[in-house]
Amino acid sequence: MSNLENDATNEQPASEPTPEPKDEPSAPHELLSLMLMGKSLRLLMDSDSVQSLYWGEQLVSRAELAGKRVSEMAHRFQLQAQAAVQPAAPLSISLNLQAQDNTLSYQLWVEQRQQESGECPLPSDGHLVKPKKNLNLMGIAALGFKLLKSAKVVKAVLAGASVAGYAWLFSFEFALVLIACLVAHEYGHVKAMQYFGIKTKGIYLIPFVGGLAVSDDKINTRWQDVVISIMGPCFGLFMSLGCWLLYAITDLELFAGAAVLSSLLNLFNLLPILPLDGGHILKSISFSMRSWIGLGACIAGVGLGLWVSYTFGLALLVFFLAVGALEIVFEWRQRQSSHLVALDTYGQLFSAAWYFIVAAGHVLVIMSFADSQNPILSLPMKILGS
Question: Going from the N-terminus, what domains does the chain have, and what CATH number goes with each?
Answer without folding.
Answer: 29-121 (2.40.128), 137-385 (no CATH)
